């Protein structure tokens, strides 16, 4: 570290803003040893991407011993656009804005772990932008002379530094010509963002460098549609900031669309159309203001021509994503228990059966079905009652029989225990329908909502039991279906559960609005 460097600053300060001892009358310049470097500086430098990518402890120590620390207050100008480049800067604490000379446009916001000023000293060109302290900021200053003396001994580090300078210059030039609504974008270096994208995990350094040179920044306002299902895709997108949703609905503005995923910073989409040469498989809509890096299909294929192995890997990843989307769509269709099958079940109730239309002295059992304990009971009951048909003409006996029927019959508000024409004539179905209603209700209450719906589809009796029994659906959890839980689905669900539900969980149901809650 340089203790005194009059041409760079007027007053030497400690790393954390505490003034040092007054300078000696005769300025003395000397290099600190490794033991004399404050550990705070070494720790702060290790967070910088250039040192993480180079993984060279010796170079890190050389830079730490050559740094001069400066502290800036908020809104202080660190470098100005157009002035000669004499040093590069490492942010040790705080954050800075890369902006226009009048500070009206902010091209990027850099925080701890970033560096700036390397473009000018590596390519011997004036400053390309103004950098202003956003908060109280401490930077480490490395002069151009020190950079020129250090880099020749570390060619790998020099290549990384030149790559980053090229990428930042290319992105800065593209950002300067964005539209007016993009003026407040806070976008760091492209390479720093692409390193966080799982799609490019373990890719070569040179490949990521060429990709970083070709991406361009773009912003989308909330509720705008970024891509449309069915379109021919020519671009893929990498999310820098904001949140978006992936939907497969037939109309991009439908609130009840099947949202199969939510994407945030580090997410990507659009690769299926580029790699598999097929139309867009879903809509992608911005939930908040979304900043993305856009890579065209032509640029992507041009870079990939030199990396055939990566192309096969990317195609495999795109195919896996396509399969996941299809699986999510299938799950959504199966779980759409209200808008389709479930809605039909809730409205198509079993009509009341007229007692006069039912012959109580016959058993219409299908002869092709296997014998069950229930059928044996019916046969015995039928044989016992057939010889006594004539006695029902006596009014006294009829009154006694009706009173006996009322004693052994269940309450009218609950379904009968006897199975009503099971749709699945199996031994398992018979065992379920022969259970006591209270036991069956306890079993159903231990099931999740999707399993409960599937149970109701097994027979007319099961459907009637789920629709009408007061002991079922007292606790409902729809959080597993949060991506498909929209306002109209919630309203239809409320028609199904009626007034039985005592506890309803809507965790993570982000698509619900106040209108749906009010209707509920």
UniProtKB/TrEMBL annotation:
> Where is the segment annotated Disordered?
12-33, 357-383
Q: Where is the composition biased (Polar residues)?
A: 357-375
Tell me the superkingdom of the source: Eukaryota
> Which intervals hold domain F-box?
429-476
Instruction: Give the Gene Ontology MF terms in alphabetical order.
Output: intracellularly cyclic nucleotide-activated monoatomic cation channel activity; protein-containing complex binding
Q: How does it sit in the membrane?
A: Multi-pass membrane protein
Indicate what this protein is called per its UniProt record: Cyclic nucleotide-binding-like protein
Q: Which organism is it from?
A: Syncephalastrum racemosum
């Amino acid at each position: 570290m340089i203790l005194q460097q009059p041409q760079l600053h007027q007053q030497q300060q400690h790393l954390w803003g505490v003034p040092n001892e007054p300078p000696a009358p005769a300025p003395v310049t000397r290099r600190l040893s490794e033991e004399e470097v404050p550990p705070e500086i070494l720790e702060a430098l290790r967070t910088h991407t250039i040192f993480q990518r180079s993984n060279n402890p010796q170079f890190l120590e050389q830079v730490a011993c050559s740094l001069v620390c400066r502290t800036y207050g908020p809104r202080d100008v660190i470098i100005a656009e157009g002035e000669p480049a004499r040093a590069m800067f490492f942010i040790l604490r705080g954050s800075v804005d890369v902006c226009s000379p009048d500070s009206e446009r902010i091209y990027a916001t850099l925080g701890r772990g970033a560096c700036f000023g390397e473009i000018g000293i590596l390519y011997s060109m004036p400053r390309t932008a103004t950098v202003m302290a956003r908060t109280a900021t401490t930077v480490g200053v490395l002069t151009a002379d020190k950079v020129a003396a250090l880099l020749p001994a570390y060619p790998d580090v020099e290549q990384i530094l030149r790559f980053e300078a090229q990428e930042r210059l290319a992105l800065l030039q593209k950002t300067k010509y964005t539209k007016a609504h993009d003026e407040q974008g806070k976008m760091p270096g492209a390479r720093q963002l692409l390193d966080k994208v799982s799609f490019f995990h373990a890719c070569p350094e040179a490949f990521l460098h060429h990709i970083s040179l070709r991406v361009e920044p773009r912003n989308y306002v909330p509720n705008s549609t970024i891509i449309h299902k069915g379109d021919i895709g020519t671009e893929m997108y990498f999310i820098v900031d904001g949140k978006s949703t992936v939907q497969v609905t037939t109309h991009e503005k439908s609130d009840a669309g099947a949202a199969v995923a939510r994407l945030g910073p580090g997410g990507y989409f659009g690769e299926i159309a580029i790699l598999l040469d097929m139309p867009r498989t879903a809509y992608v809509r911005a939930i908040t203001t979304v900043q993305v890096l856009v890579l065209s299909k032509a640029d992507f294929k041009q870079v990939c021509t030199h990396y055939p192995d990566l192309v096969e890997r990317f195609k495999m990843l795109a195919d896996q994503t396509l399969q996941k989307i299809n699986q999510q769509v299938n799950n959504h269709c199966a779980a759409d228990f209200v808008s389709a099958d479930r809605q039909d079940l809730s409205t198509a109730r079993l009509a009341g059966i007229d007692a006069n239309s039912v012959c109580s002295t016959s058993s219409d059992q299908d002869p092709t079905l296997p014998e069950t304990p229930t059928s044996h009971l019916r046969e015995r009951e039928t044989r016992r009652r057939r010889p006594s048909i004539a006695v029902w003409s006596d009014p006294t006996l009829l009154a006694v029989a009706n009173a006996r029927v009322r004693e052994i019959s269940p309450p009218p508000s609950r379904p009968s225990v006897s199975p009503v024409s099971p749709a699945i004539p199996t031994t398992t179905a018979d065992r379920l329908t022969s259970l006591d209603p209270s036991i069956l209700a306890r079993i159903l209450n231990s099931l999740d909502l999707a399993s409960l719906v599937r149970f109701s589809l097994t027979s007319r009796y099961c459907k009637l039991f789920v629709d009408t029994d007061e002991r079922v659906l007292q606790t409902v959890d729809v959080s597993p279906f949060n991506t498909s839980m929209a306002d109209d689905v919630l309203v239809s669900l409320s028609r199904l559960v009626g007034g039985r539900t005592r506890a309803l969980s809507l965790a993570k149901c982000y698509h619900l609005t106040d209108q749906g809650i009010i209707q509920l």
